[in-house]
Amino acid sequence: MKKLIYLCESVLNRFINFLKTITGYAIFLFMALLFFQVCMRFIFNHPIYGIDEMVTFFMIWTMSMGWCTVYWDNEHAVLEFVMKKMPHLFQRIMYNVTNLIVVIISIIYIPGSKKLFDMQMKMTPVGGLDFSKAYYYALPVLVMSIIMLVLSIYKTIAYLVTGDDKLVAPVQEEVLALLELDESRTRKEKERGGDNDDEWNS
Amino acid sequence: MMNGIVDPYLMFYFVSFIIMILLQVPISYAMASSSLLYAVINHQSFVMFAQKTANSFADFNMLALPAFLFVGIFMNEIGLTDRIFGMAEKWLGHLPGGLAHSNIMASMIFAGMSGSALADAGGLGTIEVKAMTDAGYDKNFSVAVTAASAGIGPIIPPSINFVVWAFLSKTSTLAMFQAGMLPGICMGIAMMAWVIYATKKYNIKVPVIEKSNWGDRYKSTIHALPALGGPAILVFGIMTGIFTPTECSVVAAAYCVILSIILKRFSIKMLTKALRDTLSSAGMAMSLCATGLIFNWMIVTSGLINAMTNFMLGLGNEILILLVLNGILMFLGCFIGSMQILIMIAPLLMNIAAGLGMSYIQIGVMAVLNVTLGLITPPMAPALFVTAKATGGSFDAALKYTVQFLIPMVITLAFVTFYEPLTMWLPKILGSVR
Amino acid sequence: ATTEEPTQAAETTEPEKKEAVVVKFGNAGAIGEPAPEACQEFCDLANEAFDGEFVFEFYPAEQLGNEGTMMENLQVDLQQGMMCSLDSLASYSKDINILSMAFAFESSEHMLNYLHSEVADPIWNALDDNGFHMVNFEFQKNPRIFFCKYPLYSPADMVGMKYRIPNLPIFEKNALAMGATPTVVSWSEYPFALLQGVVDGGECSKDSYKSAGLYEAAKYVTEVNYAYPVECIIFSKTFWDSLTAEQQDIVNECAEKAAEGYNETIKQKWEDDKAFLIDEGEVTFVEYDRQAFLDAAAPLAEALEEEGFFETEDLYNKVQAFK
Ligand code: NA
Ligand code: NA
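That is the input. Now the predicted structure with sodium ion docked in place:
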């Protein structure tokens, strides 16, 4: 059983790692598109119709995927000053309650975004794009909720099997998530890195 | 809007939310969960969750958020911040209080490029503390000045909290940016004044460096020019209004990338890392905005906000209302991150502003400045925490000096709250507010 | 507290206790504009007529979301009603495109004749299919105009003009027909986009030109009256179908009354606005070449027809019969 969990962990880590890189570059792409649009407007006085909507497309997709990676890394903003003082057992129970909340919220997102997708598919495309807004409003949220559901179910099961707090415990200092201090990030990447499976053996 | 009906289960949603965040449920999920309770009890469609999420990601003004985060992260990666401090040192180091003034001024300049406070504390801060301790300054005092001056970051434009506030209150981001300019400068000056007073009163060791000659000053300024270019473009763009804030953010991002290439500091590895970090920070912030929009739907349509507004406005006296409001914000700021507070409390702030005939812009600057105090208030004091961690200083030892900086900050806050022109004069003469 | 009194009154007269049903009614306009005022009027009338059976709560200024969001809310009954510009429902009902097409109608009467005829039935059917029920579309705004930072005497002046459009394809087609460069800007950003030069000008109903402050940054108006916009009141179909016939009649009556009040004041309001714009706003009303604009728009009908902008075949020619 544990082996299977480690295998899943490794696969999911690689997946999130890959997702982070391509989504990061998608952010770069839409910033570049927007910069191009600024130049077109200022230098050539001729903004290109359709770019703005394209940028919206990327924004929704990248932020949806970003939400998944934040959850995987336990980087969500939390209030920790009360729980710090609680007994460890209570903390561990709450980690799992939190994880169940994520499972539930992810589940209720799925029918909601599916319904929204169906509603938006009936609308005519806008903003100079050829395809319906369903593909960049409802769909990314649907995909996000499915990924999040998979991740949260994995964490719930894996925690029961391994009892490893790192799976579910929030990154200790909430501020680090906003700051991205080199030190903490490299430490974390090392700890949770996809290729680095031997931590499980220790 | 004075609608009378209040959801009978109101307290239930509210209390469940409070319990969840106290038990370390991520704030975004706590907001989603109490909204879920509301949706289930009132038989509301779950489409709302997906819809509000997509809508908050789709807001064109929110595009500035990842871009400004990228700029802050990238600026620290390129490592030009030492030049900013070097320049400030040559210009202000000889004044009583010496490098502490340079520290504050460097933060004011860095604030013109960065949208958040912690990028200042963790990046520029390490250079500042090192320079000050090398020059023989009290380390705890150096850490305190650094942590406090980082708070200027979200007030002088650009500011991520202003972007979020503009999104929540549907005001102009540009006007918010313009409105933050003078309060930000005032905050810097108030801190400098406090440095002069405090170093005398508490006998803090602050060796003054020799007054630099004009040649050195010009040389350091020329040397800092590449780092000054970014803030210059942004401030010019924001003040003249030729760029929208979203455009400003990508222009700044492009400037950073081009600069790093010219200075031969660019690498794909660095870019990838910066982009991945941007994704994480932006993902966290945007998930809060998304669930915040869901939460706002709940508290607006359930009647909670009306009940709270009626209570607050029932206090009668405008000064009292604003004092209580500031007290609430300050209390929340001690425990909860600034953006989270803004998201949770925006509808209340807007109603109170409308009730008092205050502009959404002024109350927005007030709220952002107020929650910025939370950066240096115990028990969390995240700015101090980051500075101490990044510089190897002691959180507890520096706390004493750090909280003293609340005095100049609260004085600035009082002016923002009760003296309207400090925020509104600039947007008015620049034409972005009628 | 004021709304509680009628509820209690109803309780004492009726033996079985009936809880008031809350009806959330939204609008995007800021308080003080004509549309939200009409909404408030409508909600007040309805609250009076229903005497506590329903409580109509009015949420102005995008409190329930922007127009697109509110429409989605209606589809899933998250909110029950709203007032919006009829044009903005075009994403759900293609024939509505013709209402915004440049110079498709020659007068307000012309357009309303069409909307009251059975040629317009596909519009209401499509809205029905998407979960909307149309209650009233007779809140007649003042006609649509062009305006810019420089004078537009004819479409020749619009070549290369950065022209603001909402995120609706028909407005893009109008812009292109005039030779302008379409730029999507949300309604709330419109004044700032003008100020910052993101756009040079655009179009709007006469009412909005003053109330949204668009005149402050773009002072040349070409009063072409190229379309005759109306505001409408729509309800969620789920909610509407849950009402009895009598209750539906009451809502219809209240909407009619609110529309009458709106229409009585709106024309005079433009007269006042115009005087203000000329005297105090330093706005110039341009002497323009109407025929040149008509000529520029002439190929539109066929192009739109070809590109599938209308559900009804040959719609343009069909509506011309209602002059
Ligand atoms: Na800033
Ligand atoms: Na500083």
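Residues B 111, 114-115, 153, 156-159 surround sodium ion (ligand 1) (CB under 6 Å).
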